[in-house]
Amino acid sequence: MVMTPLTVIILAKNEEALIERCIKSVQWANEVLVMDSGSTDKTREIASSLGAKVYVQEWLGWPGQRNKATSIAKNDWVFFVEADEIVTPELAESIQKAMISPNGQDVFSLDRRGDFLGLLLPNMSRRKNISGFVRIYNKQYSAYDMSMKVHEGIIYSSKPILLKGVLLHWRGYVMDEYIPVGNRYATVEAEVLNESNYRATGLIIFLRPILRFLWCYIARGGIFLGTRGLIHAMLQATNEYVRYAKLWEMQNIDRVLHPPTSVYREPSTAQVKPVASYSISAAKTGEVL
Q1: Average pLDDT, integer, range 63-67
Q2: Does one domain contain both 184 and 72?
Q3: Angstrom distance (rounded) from CA 107 to CA 157
Q4: For residue range 142-178, what is the model confidence (pLDDT) as tens digits?
Q5: Could you tell me if residue 154 is inside a domain?
Q6: How far is CA 259 from CA 249, 250, 255, 268, in A?
Q7: Same domain, 111 and 200
Q8: Cα 62 → chain centroid
Q9: Statement to judge: residues 95 and 149 lie in one domain
Q10: CA 32 – CA 27 distance, rounded (Å)
């Protein structure tokens, strides 16, 4: 049976270290489209050499960039893969089977798993979020939600179909890279929460990190991953704390660049006494000039 034509779309910027393995894992697709947002390395050259169609588009935000790329794809069915992801053979087989006479309004979700310090983690999402992690859809019926600034999702009307196989999200980050990435996401996520009028309180700031730690370490099995599992759970808890601390700051604090008068009162001009100046010769004689 013939597979319905499918376009794989990869958003990229300065991904020369990872783009090759990503494209090679999806070369079975009818079209591979790389939407580049201004790479200064060899990302575009590598992608072109592997047969991908490369387009350059100034960054439009995550949902905007995705929808723009979708409009360029020659096929109605599209599959979004990040440059730091790898489609495993089992997942590739599942996708090809799913693309045999699919219903136009069908959407397909994937089990995406990340790495941490050289170890493949279990999927840390809730079951509902795993089944709702849609990456394959028909652009005539679905599209990315333009209102979402981060963790963007697809608008669809049917129940997602979870495919077998794993989508690997492997960057090989070390701690010096995890921490600033978590900090950047915390800022955007706090802004989204603030725009939705979610209020941060001291109790929330205290409890959320604890619950996140227990979720990652106990509920999702981090306890069985040794020291890496412990570090990962604590890092996730830290990110949770920073997110809600930033949200509280946005809602309660104006930046205070200078100390208030209760802390430091700048002396008036009249109170300032001139400082005696000395010359080298005067210093020798002890005379004040």
Answers
A1: 92
A2: no
A3: 9
A4: 998 877 776 778 899 889 999 999 999 999 999 999 9
A5: yes
A6: 18, 20, 11, 16
A7: no
A8: 10
A9: yes
A10: 7
